[in-house]
Write a sequence for this structure.
């Protein structure tokens, strides 16, 4: 259901999951919160702060929060809910806290204008300690360098500490940037593509290219369609170079709405091997683990349309077609006025 909603509303699966969970909770076990939503006392975002409750304590918290919803911001509502949960279900709260602490992770979220957000889902005391340490160091550094704000110093220290393992303060991991030769040379300013992020300006590409730690691979594209034809090194037909070609061509998981970079995804068959799917660039694509397994679920099918494209059919018989984006804008070719004979 989450995947169906994500496709139907063109949102991420995480957003779809929250929408489904919030709707089920409001209709199934939070009548007072639902009534406040229907009256306009709160919006759906505020209602979602109450909806993340287990069925066992939902009725108690819902009743306790009935007079504490209107005219309050989402943060205040969330804190009141957390207070009520600990009040009515201390043992359950302790168990849920342990489960959530086991889910600690790091997340990367791309924003506009060449920026991204790197965040950590960490125990509160650990996150608070990290932030306090960064703030203390940033204040000390700013006394010697007032040209940068405290926030800028904090961000720079954060990056430097994470990259300290390499012995320097610049990224050295292999990232995939797709750029045409003329933009790289500075002759034009067409946007390039950073895998997993999207368009980045020519000046940033040239900065990345000038870094002595950058590595390069040759990508040959069709000038008419912009689709990838070859990815060096190696020959086209060996499995290793086929995987290289597909990752370079697809750049991301090919499922609609999923932007996991291809280098962190799997190379798999659209029509599965068990159903006599061929191992070639038409039937193979990059897919994250979740969406690779999705096509094996009852009611889900995927049919190749060529060169990594596919048509997905869901259990409700809706269809969605996806095709790898060209590596550059196809440019019209000059017409050939030469007579046939």
């Amino acid at each position: 259901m989450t995947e169906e909603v994500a496709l139907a509303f063109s949102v991420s699966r995480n957003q779809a999951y929250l929408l489904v969970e919030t709707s089920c909770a409001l209709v199934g076990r939070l009548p007072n919160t639902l009534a406040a939503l229907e009256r306009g006392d709160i919006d759906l975002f505020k209602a979602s702060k109450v909806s993340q409750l287990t069925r066992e304590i939902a009725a108690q918290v819902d009743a306790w929060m009935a007079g504490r919803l209107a005219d309050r911001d989402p943060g205040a509502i969330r804190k009141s809910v957390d207070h009520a949960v600990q009040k009515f279900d201390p043992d359950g709260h302790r168990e849920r806290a342990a489960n959530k602490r086991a889910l600690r992770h790091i997340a990367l979220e791309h924003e506009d204008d060449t920026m991204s957000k790197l965040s950590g889902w960490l125990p509160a005391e650990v996150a608070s300690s990290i932030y306090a340490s960064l703030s203390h160091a940033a204040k000390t550094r700013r006394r010697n360098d007032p040209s940068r704000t405290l926030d800028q110093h904090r961000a720079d220290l954060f990056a430097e500490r994470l990259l300290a393992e390499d012995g320097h303060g610049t990224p050295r991991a292999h990232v995939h940037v797709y750029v045409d030769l003329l933009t790289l040379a500075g002759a034009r300013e067409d946007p390039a593509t950073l895998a997993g992020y999207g368009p980045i300006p020519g000046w940033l590409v040239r900065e990345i290219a000038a870094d002595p730690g950058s590595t390069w691979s040759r990508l040959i594209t069709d000038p008419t369609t912009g689709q990838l034809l070859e990815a060096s090194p190696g020959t086209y037909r060996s499995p290793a170079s086929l995987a290289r070609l597909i990752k370079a061509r697809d750049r991301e998981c090919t499922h609609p709405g999923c932007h996991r970079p291809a280098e962190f995804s799997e190379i798999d068959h659209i029509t599965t091997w068990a159903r006599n799917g061929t191992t070639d660039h038409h039937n193979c694509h990059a897919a994250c683990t979740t969406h690779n397994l999705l096509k094996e679920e009852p009611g889900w099918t995927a049919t190749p349309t060529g060169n990594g494209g596919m048509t997905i059919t869901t259990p409700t018989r809706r269809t969605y077609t996806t095709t790898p984006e060209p590596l550059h804008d196809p440019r019209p070719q000059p017409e050939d006025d030469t007579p046939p004979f």
